[in-house]
Amino acid sequence: MQTHTTIASLRSTLDRARAGGARVGLVPTMGFLHAGHVSLLERAVADNDVAAATLFVNPLQFGAGEDLAAYPRDLPRDAALVAAAGVDHLFTPTVEEMYPTPVLTSVSVAGITERFEGASRPTHFAGVATVVAKLFAIAGPCRAYFGEKDFQQVAVVRRMAADLSLPVEVVACPTVREPDGLALSSRNVYLTAEERAAAPVLHRALSAGAAAVTAGERSASVVRDLMRDLIAAEPLAQLDYVDVVDAATLAPVEPLVGALRLLAAARFGKARLLDNLGVLAE
Ligand code: AMP
Predict the structure, then answer these.
(1) Which atom of ligand 1 is nearest to the CA of 37?
(2) What DSSP designation does 60 have?
(3) What are the pLDDT digits (tens) for 126-182?
(4) How would residue 101 be classed by pLDDT, with cut points 50, 70 and 90?
(5) What predicted TM-score, i.e. pTM, was given to this entire model?
(6) From start to end of 142-231, where are the E strands?
(7) Ligand 1 proximity of 185 Cβ (cutoff 6 Å)
(8) Which of 3, 113, 109, 44 is nearest to 13 (CA)?
């Protein structure tokens, strides 16, 4: 595996690979990798001739008072995991390399960014869309792999790539979970033992919501209340939002019909955790 710290190095390497006929797979991450990230890396390796991972804790997507400084980092361990997955190129730029001058350009996606994560973190998705647009510009034509764990993020990135005609195919990959249902997240390290024991309530609530829909419940508010009550019964969980929406547009649906997504976010002590689940109302 080759490690690149400059934009010019990654760009010229991937340009050369494509010139030789290679298909390129790209996996953007903020590092502190876990099995969820590794599933994306392995998919990128399996589907493409050349795979590249990027590891960059992007300051633009953290709000004031969020965990930018505390965000967990372990570059040697991450590099070993990326290499073990069979990835050919690792891009680890500094903040100065990515943003040598104050950033005056911001990519903002309207509509789908306004609710859920966007409501709780008003500058977050502009930060994500800006860095991902930049990584796509650096990597060039490729397939890019994102986790469904951050469901709204995939929708934003997909829409941004389509609206800007970027030559990137966005591929969404399933959420990797702990045996008790907790979605893997770099932020799970913030959990105390008690909070870790409480955190699977998010997945339990979403599963109960999905089961209700499958059993025939067609009222969004009934499903929402059911999930909210389950999370409220866990004293260590501070609910941020829970909802059931159209899976393609993230818009409200009432009565429930078609491909739906159940979404939840809650704080457990220092950790703010997200989860989601798909269900079909036929
Ligand atoms: P992050 O480093 O948290 O920005 O995540 C990098 C990528 O890994 C994003 O596309 C995430 O959605 C994805 N990801 C994070 N957690 C998981 C998980 N548990 N399963 C699958 N993909 C994940």
Answers:
(1) 8
(2) G
(3) 999 999 999 999 999 999 999 999 999 999 999 999 999 999 999 999 999 999 999
(4) very high
(5) 0.98
(6) 142-147, 168-173
(7) yes
(8) 3
Does residue 61 line the site of ligand 1, with CB under 6 A?
Answer: no
* Best probe residue, ligand 1, of 26, 40, 124, 135 (max atoms within 8 Å of C-beta): 40
The CATH number fitting domain 2-173, selected from 3.30.70.100, 3.30.420.10, 3.40.50.620, 3.30.70.360:
3.40.50.620
Domain boundaries, the chain: 2-173, 186-277
Instruction: Write the DSSP string, 57-117.
Output: --GGGSPTTSSTTT----HHHHHHHHHHTT-SEEE---HHHH-SS---------STTSSTH
Q: Determine whether 37 is an active site residue.
A: yes
Quick one: which atom of ligand 1 is closest to the CA of 176? 20
Q: Which ligand 1 atom sits nearest the alpha carbon of residue 177?
A: 19
Question: Ligand 1 center to residue 119 CA distance, Å?
Answer: 20
Name the residue among 37, 277, 248 with its Cα closest to residue 155: 248
Cβ–ligand 1 contact at 29 (below 6 Å): yes
Atom 18 of ligand 1, residue of closest alpha carbon: 36
Tell me the C-alpha to C-alpha distance, in Å, between residue 43 and each of 27, 46, 102, 239. Answer: 9, 5, 35, 33
In words, the CATH class of domain 186-277 is alpha beta
Place of tokens 């260590």: 236
- Contact predicate 237/201, CB 8 Å: yes
- Any idea how long the chain is? 282
- Residue 275 in contact with ligand 1 by CB distance below 6 A: no
2-173 and 186-277 share one fold: no
pLDDT digits (tens, 9 = 90+) for 50-77: 999 999 999 999 999 999 999 999 999 9
Mean pLDDT across 178-205: 98
